[in-house]
Amino acid sequence: MAYEMILSERRGSVLVLTLNRPERLNAAPPKLFDELRDAIGALDGARAVLVTGAGRAFCSGADVAGGSFAASDPAQATYDALTQNYNATMAAFADLPVPVISAVRGPAAGIGCSLALAADFCVASETGYFLQAFVNIGLVPDGGASWMLPRLIGKARATEMMMLGEKVPAAKALDWGMIHKVVADEALDAEAFALAERLASGPTVAFGLMKRGLAHSLESDYAAGMLREAEHQRDARRTADSIEGGRSFLEKRKPAFTGA
Fold it and tell me: What is the residue-wise DSSP string for 141-188?
């Protein structure tokens, strides 16, 4: 399917999604997030998803300047866009049963910051930075940022990002444990895709169970977390990839996972 605001491309087992509004630093109207949600609605065999931005930015935030929220009641229009477009897409990414990688060059601001950090792995270039700029215009973080950031970097640093509204460069984000890796700008695309390919060749069902287990652990107590692990381990042991993993271990060779 052709999209207006994103590019969608299958490269082997990796679905590559590119935010494609470089002239606006990939500022995201609600429609852009709708297109992302549609693109991941049917993975069609893809075993990893890579999200990146065209040009010199990942995403500079919601496209407020572009008039997306022009309405008789802008506050209600903003609420509607969040609940019906942006949040629905963030939830769809969270529910994906395959690994998601984000590749950040330049700004990942506002809703773009939320999208980048929602990935299972966030790889940033040396020019990348993360920004919660809402305080500068009298607004509050959205797209799940107020839920996500304290869990990634702790309450004190999350408060700093939200209330001071200052850029967090890629190197600091890595030091804080916010992201997976920082690479040279010219190496970003290759490094992020190599990681996506590595994950796409892994035990897909087990990855999906790991994602569910991690999400559950953030909201449950220790005993409930261990019970969920046991349930997921039972499910994982029933997969073809688990059988292949056991055989490859005994035969002292690299496993050939199929995602089944």
Answer: --TTHHHHHHHHH-HHHHHHHHHH---EEHHHHHHHTSSSEEE-GGGH
Length of the chain as a residue count: 260
Instruction: Kindly report the CATH number that applies to the domain delimited by 204-250.
Output: 1.10.12
Q: What global pTM score does this model have?
A: 0.90
Question: Tens digit of pLDDT per residue, the chain (260 long)?
Answer: 789 999 999 999 999 999 999 999 999 999 999 999 999 998 999 999 999 999 999 999 998 655 555 567 888 888 989 999 999 999 999 999 999 999 999 999 999 999 999 999 999 999 999 999 999 989 999 999 999 999 999 999 999 999 999 999 999 999 999 999 999 999 999 999 999 999 999 999 999 999 999 998 888 887 887 888 788 888 888 899 888 888 898 898 989 998 88
Q: Give the C-alpha separation, 260 to 102, whole Å.
A: 25
User: Who's near 168: CB < 8 A, 6+ residues apart?
Assistant: 129, 130, 131, 161, 176, 178
Residue type, 110: G
Determine the topology of domain 6-200 in CATH: 2-enoyl-CoA Hydratase; Chain A, domain 1 (3.90.226)
Parts of the chain belonging to CATH 3.90.226.10: 6-200
Give the helix/strand (H/E) hosting 15: strand 14-19
| Whether 129 contacts 166, CB under 8 Å | no
